[in-house]
Known about the structure:
Blueprint: H1 2-14, E1 29-30, E2 38-41, E3 58-63, E4 66-70, E5 76-80, E6 91-95, E7 102-104, H2 106-118, E8 122-127, H3 144-164, E9 176-181, H4 183-193, E10 204-207, E11 225-230, H5 237-249, E12 255-259, H6 278-288
Parallel strand pairs: 6-8, 6-9, 9-10, 10-11, 11-12
Antiparallel strand pairs: 1-3, 2-5, 3-4, 4-7, 5-8
Helix pairs in contact: 3-4
Amino acid sequence: MRRLRAAWLAITVVLGGGIAGVAAAGGAAHTSAVPASETLRLWPGIAPGSEHWTQKEVIVRNTPVGTVAINVVTPTLTAYLPPPSRASGTAVIIAPGGYCVALALSAEGSDVARWLQSKGIAAFVLKYRTREKRQQGVPTDIDMDAACRYGIADAIEAVKRVRREAAKWHVARHRVGIIGFSAGGMVASGALLQADAGARPDFAALIYGAPFGAMPAIPADLPPIFMAWAQDDALVRDQLQRFRHALLVAGNRPETHIYRSGGHGFAMKHQGTTSDHWAEAYLAWLAAQGLLRPGALSAAH
């Protein structure tokens, strides 16, 4: 937990020490939604479990990590769709990181979505619910299982929502995956490991992210899993190694890329390190699963 608190410290520094200091980080605070090709509310009404939340969502633009969301109450999906003529029929839901307190909506959301879109993949940025940020500085009481539980529920619902509306987006219902970054990897892993096997995503990628609380039960015969992190990422390296070991013990065989350097939060950055090429490896892995070839859109899950 000390290392995860250090990750929160990094977020706090970037955002100028809290909501009140966000504007100083490079942009004025906004409460409007992030501009998108299509944005829709994830749940038909108030998201279950947050009926009594009173915090106000804040969207901050032009920070050193791009657009950031804080105090998310109303989860949304933002669609980035390839032209129908180029659609592979594959969809990927993207869960940005931010310690389940903030969301890096552009660096680990829309930037990734536009790249996937360019490859013929329908991408959906999930703005999931986050723990309310009330205090300045570094929280000392973060329980990651509690902080991310609502994000996990939103990720599970996002998979269901994309499948329900698959035809509208030229997506095959049996080719809906998820990718998560940092704490978004914990959110994505919650959807992957849920008890209802039929509701799990069809494939999952965890980029410098994994369960950061108690190790959950690991079912056998999980869908295909891709993992990537850097050896010099002291914030989360141990947790990822522990989760990969648990997957192997349960009989799963995750595709794993451990880069010599790249640090934490490399996402789509080009730093001159080997981690710059994780996206190429991920694309090759998708191709090996047959997920880049146009599929039958009417195929049942």
